[in-house]
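=== RUN LOG ===
request id: a7f3
mode: sequence -> structure
chains: 1
length: 95
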Amino acid sequence: MNYNPAPKPRINFNRSLGWNLNNRKDMEITEKIFDGPDCYRWRKVFAWLPTKTIKGKYIWGKTIYKQRYWAVWGTSFHMEPMIEYAELFDIIKDA
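=== RESULT ===
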């Protein structure tokens, strides 16, 4: 008998309840807040372990840049702190 029940949704315990209740595939960041608490613009850090950049590349063993901001989804109801990593040329290209 081939009985395959529907897969259970995965719960991310590092995220809030609202993040897990919403369908994350449909969620789109509507605003990035850089002047909130615990936020900072680009800082120079060293990537010891493989780190995914904003361009989708994995980089390690070199100096990269990191920023932290509050990501807002929808109509400012749900916010989460997010961290982005980038190389210097990616930052300059996006500016």
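=== NOTES ===
The longest helix spans residues 88-94.
The helical segments are 17-21, 88-94.
=== END ===
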